[in-house]
Write a structure and sequence with these properties.
Protein name: Helix-turn-helix domain-containing protein
Largest sheet: 3 strands, antiparallel
Oligomer: single chain
Structural class: alpha+beta
Number of strands: 3
Order of helices and strands: EHHEEH
Distance between the termini: 24 Å
Helix content: 40-55%
Organism: Alteromonas ponticola
Length: 60
């Protein structure tokens, strides 16, 4: 399992970190766990699947 931080997800999806946090709050991207500071961590495969789906629906 390869986990990504909010910053890494934002860079991968080419969006702002606040948008990643909002996607997580709205359960559109589900965090697998929290780091020691309480920040969400996302599975790389889930982020890749989200990107494919979002592109099919017209963009992120």
């Amino acid at each position: 399992m390869s986990l990504m931080t909010v910053k890494e997800v934002a860079a991968y999806l080419d969006i702002q970190e606040a948008r990643v946090e909002r996607l997580e709050r709205e359960s559109l991207l589900v965090a697998k766990k929290k780091d020691v500071d309480g920040n969400p961590m996302f599975e790389r495969d889930d982020v890749e699947r989200y990107k494919v789906l979002a592109e099919r629906l017209g963009g992120i």
